[in-house]
Amino acid sequence: MTCTIGGELSRCDFGDARLTTRVVKLASSICEHPKASINAACGSFAASKGAYRFFQNENVKPDKILANHIQNTCERAANDGRPILAIQDTTDLIYTKFPSIKDLGQRLKASKDYDQGVKGLMLHSTLALNMDGVPLGIAKQTFFTFDDVKAGRGQKNTNERGINKTFPINKKVSYRWLDHLQSLNKLARTHNTSIIHVADREADIYEFLHLSATEASSFVVRSKSDRLTQGVTRRGKTPTLTKLIANANALLTVAFDVDGVEIKCEIRHLTTTLRPPQRLPTAQSGVLKPIEVSVVDVRQTDRNDDPIHWRLFTNLPCGSVEEVLNVVKVYRHRWAIECFHRILKSGFQVEAARLANRQRIENFATVLSIVSWFIFWLYKFGRISPSTLAASVIDKDGIKVLLVSAKKLKIKASRTMTLGEALLIVARLGGFLGRTGDGDPGMQSIWRGWRCLAERMDFLDALTYG
After folding, report:
1. Residue 82: half-sphere exposure toward Cβ, Cα within 13 Å
2. Residue 159, number of CB atoms within 10 A of its CB
3. Is pLDDT of 2 > 70?
């Protein structure tokens, strides 16, 4: 499995072939220059002007930019032949420092940095991973603001307490989790692929779990609420999850590696039936039935101060120790989407854009999302398949530059360079020291080194072709 930026965008349909050519060139330029502004990445006045015109073009929409990439993602998922992890998460895109940007939303609460509230967008993404943790692509993205949701339900007073409880799920901000779940299930059926939906505590919504059960889709969701369960205790009370788990026997104690540090965790497991929550008449969106789930409780035992504690809801098989450990393994892959958002915001500086309005910001952020995925894919794929030839991803000039750089850095590299060797050289260019105890290079050294490689390739191109 090899990927290129051009291959992710070359079949975009904007109704004008020139726009497709433009987005391929633009994405390639941005990919080669992490942290650079649009002008710096484009390299010339004409290219910069073309980029700004592309982002403001009325025929350019985020869904059109993503369409080709999503199709490729589905094909990669189908070819993998294993269940695919669909990991959802939301991140803020904050532009309060740029008040001239129009049509952005206002956060309901002020942050510690901005007393007047935060001006910007929310970006909800679903990232598709295979079971090895390699990101196959972005499966869906949604931009929204709290103002969008309030306008959709005719709400005027934004500070009215308890008003959110009076609306059904499809009128709430949290509906995005259900929307992405349904969209991913539809794609999975079309491409004959099985999906496991993975999410953190924000997705602990009864309607989300109920919809997953209704559509017979697999899920692993971290619990947020101490939910009520079916049944009655000896004293006639409804048992909660916390009490049930406290009475469950420990299944096993395992050691996990977290950021190079080994931690010990105790795992408990039980199967129970969740009781539907009571909703106000105006907030009901259908009949909610009890849901049978497996609960996997993971608690760190070698730390008393703020230990790791995951309480996971799942409908995956949990009949054996191996199956329970597989649920934990699946949830541990959730961190991938945090890495993806970090590349988008820190590596490619999506929040530094000074475009005129929301439409252009969304188009720009979508292009950057595909570029961020590519860098993340390169990083993870290079770890999983280090013996893959680097020439399948990096062109001839890039290989030449890497060979010269390897000699300068005193790294052994063959002319038939592998991807593992190439990424080590890239990481060294990005500041990775590669000492005995340093382990594998991190994501930050990869994107820094990628920019250094691009600059050296530009210099070689200028010397060779003038």
Report:
1. 11
2. 6
3. no
Burial of 342 per CB tally in 10 Å (0-12, 13-18, 19+) = middle
29 and 46 Cβ atoms separated by less than 8 Å: no
By the 10 Å C-beta count (0-12 exposed, 13-18 middle, 19+ buried), 82 is classed as exposed
* 174-222 pLDDT per residue, tens: 999 999 999 999 999 999 999 999 999 999 999 999 999 999 999 999 9
**Cα-Cα end-to-end distance for the chain:** 35
Q: How far is CA 43 from CA 47, 54, 87, 154, 395, in A?
A: 7, 16, 36, 46, 20
- Across the chain, mean pLDDT equals 89
Domains, the chain, ordered by start: 387-465 (1.10.740.10)
Identify the pLDDT of residue 414. 81
Radius of gyration of the chain (CA): 24
Query: Strands 135-144 and 195-199, how do they pair?
Result: unpaired
pTM beyond 0.90: yes
Question: Among 108-112, 250-254, 394-398, whose mean pLDDT is lowest?
Answer: 108-112
- Among the listed residues 398, 401, 442, 397, the one whose alpha carbon sits nearest the alpha carbon of residue 424: 442
Please check whether residue 128 is in contact with residue 136, taking contact to mean a CB–CB distance below 8 angstroms: yes
